[in-house]
Amino acid sequence: MSPSIVVDIGNTRMKWGRVAGGAIADSVALGRYPTEEWQSIFDAWQLGDDSPWLIASVDPGRTEAFSRWLDERGQSYIILRSYRQIPIPIEVDTPEGVGLDRLLASLGAVGLNLFPPPFLIVQVGTALVVNFVNPEGAFIGGSILPGFALMAKSLNEHTAQLPKVSVEAMADILPGKNTEQAIQLGMLAAALGTVRTLRERPNADPLPVYLTGGDGEILKPHLAEPVVLVPDLVLEGLRLVAEKLR
């Protein structure tokens, strides 16, 4: 079975991608549980028994719910459950503990080959995750910190007076002139400081960066080149895995 629909189930949302012609032909970001929304895309893409699915997830409970939904529609699918199913060299202490989305994003970046390795893949979603790919194209680890929405929520819920700020329009003022701007600027500085620090190399240009995830657009204007925004990087990794299943 060669999957023609790839699905990335994240902490906040899920993404579907339709594979055609050796590429992600269409993609859509969906809520995790609104089955009416799922059905709408299912119908619009005219999916049937000849449209097998390949699924990767960071949330086992939501994966079970989605697989039941597929079962009700007679769909065939494969769920990735192990790093061993992802064809990228992995050089970390406990590969079984690495999120499959991180490995898939790294594989997708290697496959796209927009920059030669080494490079960073920065996933900006519920968490802000930085992944390293070494000169040989191996995933060698990275860093994890809260994403923008999680930072904003934490400050609001664990303080008496700080408001919950929007992450749609991050402050671009130094210093922040009010509390909301100060929080936005602090979140942006935390994220940028992480990425800028990790991409630095002694006596060499900064590492290239692949940006992906729902909030990747927030960081891109603030990062020096070379940097590229690839919203469907995990889906691209899943597409490459699907090719191996032929």
Describe this structure in words.
By secondary structure, the protein is an alpha/beta fold. It folds into two domains: 5-82 and 237-244, Nucleotidyltransferase, domain 5 (2-Layer Sandwich), CATH 3.30.420.40; 115-229, Nucleotidyltransferase, domain 5, CATH 3.30.420. The chain has seven helices and ten strands. The protein has helices at residues 35-44, 60-72, 100-112, 148-157, 179-199, 216-219, 233-244; strands spanning 5-9, 14-20, 23-30, 53-57, 77-79, 119-124, 127-133, 139-146, 209-212, 227-229. Strands 3-2-1-4-5 form a five-stranded mixed sheet, sandwiched between helices. A five-stranded mixed sheet has the order 8-7-6-9-10, with helices on both faces. Strand 7 and strand 8 form a beta hairpin. Helix 3 crosses helix 7. The model has no long low-confidence stretch (mean pLDDT 92).
